[in-house]
C-alpha cells in the first residue's frame, strides 16, 4: 500500500537522524517521504551499507523498502554536516554519550529533536532535559515528538499522527512541517513536559496490560487498567508541570491505546512474557529491541514519591518485575488497601465530573485523528 505523497513543504532541507533502529529508520523514511534531504546515522557500518545500498534495514524493519534518496552513514561527522534539524532516536540510556560525541559536530543553529520515550535512569531527567544539559542550546532549539507511533505500521505507510512539542511554537511548527507527509501528520504544542511524560508513562501502563494479557485476563481488566492508568499518567505529569489536555491527546491517551493494544509493542510484549511467568532477566534476554518501560519504572516511581503522586498500577508493575507480586494479582481493585468506596476521580480533580473528563479526552483524541490533514496545528 502506498499513501498519496504530499508535495514537500521545504524541499531538500538537510536533516540528520541519529540511530538506525526501528524508529530512527522509520522516522528517516517519514522525513524523506516528506521531501527532506535525510542522512541517517547508524552505529554499525554494515547497517549503514545495507540501508544505503540495499534500501533495507532487515533486522529492524523486515520487508520494508526504504526511499531511494535516503542516505545512511556510520560517520557521525558526515551525518551532522549541514543538518539544520537533528532527530535523535537512540536508547534513552545512551543519549548522553551520543550527545557528547555529536557536540562539536553539530551546526551551531541546529534544532535537536528527541524521538525517544524514556527517562535517564541515573538522573530521572527527560530526554529534552538531557539535551539541554549536555548541549549549549536554549530550550527554543529543542523539540520532542510523541504519539501513537508503532514503527512497523508507519513504515508500511499506515496513516497516523504525532505531536511535535517545543518551548517555541515556531520551532515546533518548523519541525512539524518537515515531519509531515501523505501518511504522517504532525500537530504542535508547547507542552514539552506533558508530551515527553506521556510517551514515557504509557510504556509502563502498556507493560501492565501485557502482564494481564499474559495471565489470560480479558477486556474488562485491560480497559480498567487503561482507564485508571491514564489517571495515574495525568496526575504524575501535571504534578511536574504538564497541561492535563496533553495527556488527553496523541502523546497521552492516543499512544496509550496504541501501545496497550498492539503485539508490535515491545513494552506490551515484555509484559505478556512476565504475565506468562517468565522472570525479569529472561524477559530482558528475550527482548531484542529497546524496551524503555522496563528501565523507566524505578526512576518514575522515585519522581512520583518526590511529589506525593500515587501510582498504584505502576507500583504493581515494579513488584511484578521484582518478583514480589504474582502477575495474577495485578488488577485495579487491588491498588488500594481500603475497602471503602472511592470516588472515580478521572483526569480532573472534581469527583462530581465523573466520566465527563474522560469522555472529553477520548473525543479530543478522536477529533485530532479525524481532522488530520490540514497542516500543523495545536494539539
Ligand atoms: N519502535 C517504535 O515503534 C518507537 C516509536 C516511537 C518512539 N520510539 C522510541 O525511540 C527510541 C529508540 O527506539 P527504537 O525502537 O528505534 O529501538 P531499537 O531497539 O529498534 O533501535 C535502537 C537503535 O539504537 C542503537 N543503539 C543501541 N545502543 C546504542 C548506543 N549506545 N549508542 C547509539 N546507538 C545505540 C541500536 O543499534 C539500534 O540501531 C526509544 O526511546 C523508543 O521508545 C520507538
Ligand atoms: O514498541 P514500544 O512499546 O516501545 O512502543 C512503540 C511506540 O512508542 C508506540 O507509540
From TrEMBL:
Binding-site list for substrate: 117, 266-267
Alphabetized UniProt keyword annotations: Cytoplasm, Lipid biosynthesis, Lipid metabolism, NAD, NADP, Nucleotide-binding, Oxidoreductase, Phospholipid biosynthesis, Phospholipid metabolism
Residues that, per the record, bind NADPH: 22-23, 43-44, 60, 117, 151, 266, 292
Pathway terms, separated by semicolons: Membrane lipid metabolism; glycerophospholipid metabolism
Residues that coordinate or bind NAD(+): 19-24, 151, 266
Basic and acidic residues biased stretches: 336-351
Gene3D superfamilies membership: N-(1-d-carboxylethyl)-l-norvaline Dehydrogenase, domain 2, NAD(P)-binding Rossmann-like Domain
SUPFAM superfamilies in UniProt: 6-phosphogluconate dehydrogenase C-terminal domain-like (SSF48179), NAD(P)-binding Rossmann-fold domains (SSF51735)
Record-annotated Glycerol-3-phosphate dehydrogenase NAD-dependent N-terminal domain positions: 15-170
Domain called Glycerol-3-phosphate dehydrogenase NAD-dependent C-terminal: residue spans: 191-330
A molecular-function term among this protein's GO annotations: glycerol-3-phosphate dehydrogenase (NAD+) activity
EC number: 1.1.1.94
Cell inner membrane as UniProt keyword: no
Catalyzed chemical reaction(s): sn-glycerol 3-phosphate + NAD(+) = dihydroxyacetone phosphate + NADH + H(+); sn-glycerol 3-phosphate + NADP(+) = dihydroxyacetone phosphate + NADPH + H(+)
Positions annotated to bind sn-glycerol 3-phosphate: 117, 147, 202, 255, 265-267
GO-annotated cellular components: cytosol
Subcellular location: Cytoplasm
Active site: 202
Database matches in InterPro entries: 6-PGluconate_DH-like_C_sf, 6PGD_dom2, G3P_DH_NAD-dep, G3P_DH_NAD-dep_C, G3P_DH_NAD-dep_N, NAD(P)-bd_dom_sf
Pfam families, A to Z: NAD_Gly3P_dh_C, NAD_Gly3P_dh_N
Domain of life: Bacteria
Span list, region Disordered: 328-352
GO biological process: carbohydrate metabolic process; glycerol-3-phosphate biosynthetic process; glycerol-3-phosphate catabolic process; glycerophospholipid metabolic process; phospholipid biosynthetic process
General function of this protein: Catalyzes the reduction of the glycolytic intermediate dihydroxyacetone phosphate (DHAP) to sn-glycerol 3-phosphate (G3P), the key precursor for phospholipid synthesis.
Name of this chain's protein: Glycerol-3-phosphate dehydrogenase [NAD(P)+]
The organism's taxonomic lineage, starting at the top: Bacteria, Bacillati, Actinomycetota, Actinomycetes, Micrococcales
Amino acid at each position: 500500500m502506498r499513501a498519496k505523497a504530499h508535495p514537500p513543504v521545504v524541499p531538500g532541507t538537510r536533516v540528520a537522524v541519529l540511530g538506525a533502529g526501528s524508529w530512527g529508520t522509520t522516522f528517516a523514511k517519514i522525513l524523506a517521504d516528506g521531501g527532506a534531504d535525510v542522512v541517517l546515522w547508524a552505529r554499525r557500518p554494515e547497517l549503514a551499507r545495507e540501508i544505503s545500498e540495499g534500501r533495507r534495514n532487515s533486522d529492524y524493519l523486515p520487508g520494508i523498502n526504504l526511499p531511494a534518496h535516503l542516505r545512511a552513514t556510520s560517520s557521525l561527522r558526515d551525518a551532522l554536516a549541514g543538518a539544520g534539524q537533528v532527530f535523535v532516536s537512540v536508547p534513552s540510556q545512551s543519549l548522553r554519550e551520543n550527545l557528547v560525541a555529536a557536540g562539536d559536530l553539530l551546526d551551531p543553529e541546529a534544532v535537536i529533536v528527541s524521538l525517544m520515550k524514556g527517562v535517564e535512569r541515573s538522573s530521572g531527567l527527560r530526554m529534552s532535559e538531557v539535551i539541554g544539559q549536555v548541549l549549549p542550546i536554549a530550550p527554543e532549539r529543542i523539540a520532542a515528538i510523541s504519539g501513537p507511533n508503532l514503527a512497523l505500521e508507519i513504515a508500511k505507510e499506515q496513516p497516523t499522527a504525532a505531536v511535535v512539542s517545543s518551548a517555541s511554537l515556531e520551532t515546533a511548527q518548523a519541525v512539524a512541517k518537515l515531519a509531515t507527509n501523505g501518511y504522517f501528520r504532525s500537530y504542535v504544542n508547547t507542552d514539552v513536559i506533558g508530551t515527553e511524560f506521556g510517551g514515557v508513562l504509557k510504556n509502563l501502563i502498556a507493560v501492565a496490560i501485557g502482564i494481564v494479557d499474559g495471565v489470560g485476563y480479558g477486556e474488562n481488566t485491560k480497559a480498567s487498567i487503561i482507564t485508571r492508568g491514564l489517571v495515574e499518567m495525568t496526575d504524575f505529569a501535571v504534578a511536574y508541570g504538564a497541561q492535563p489536555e496533553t495527556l488527553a491527546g496523541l502523546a497521552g491517551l492516543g499512544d496509550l491505546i496504541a501501545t496497550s493494544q498492539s503485539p508490535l509493542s515491545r513494552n506490551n510484549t515484555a509484559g505478556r512474557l512476565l504475565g506468562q511467568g517468565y522472570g525479569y532477566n529472561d524477559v530482558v534476554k528475550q527482548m531484542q529491541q529497546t524496551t524503555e518501560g522496563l528501565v523507566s519504572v524505578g526512576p518514575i516511581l522515585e519522581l512520583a514519591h518526590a511529589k506525593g503522586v500515587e501510582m498504584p498500577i505502576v507500583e504493581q508493575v515494579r513488584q511484578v518485575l521484582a518478583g514480589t507480586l504474582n502477575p495474577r494479582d495485578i488488577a485495579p481493585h487491588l491498588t488500594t488497601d481500603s475497602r471503602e468506596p472511592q470516588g472515580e476521580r478521572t483526569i480532573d480533580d472534581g469527583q462530581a465530573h465523573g466520566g465527563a473528563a474522560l469522555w472529553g479526552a477520548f473525543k479530543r483524541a478522536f477529533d485530532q485523528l479525524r481532522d488530520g490533514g490540514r497542516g500543523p496545528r495545536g494539539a
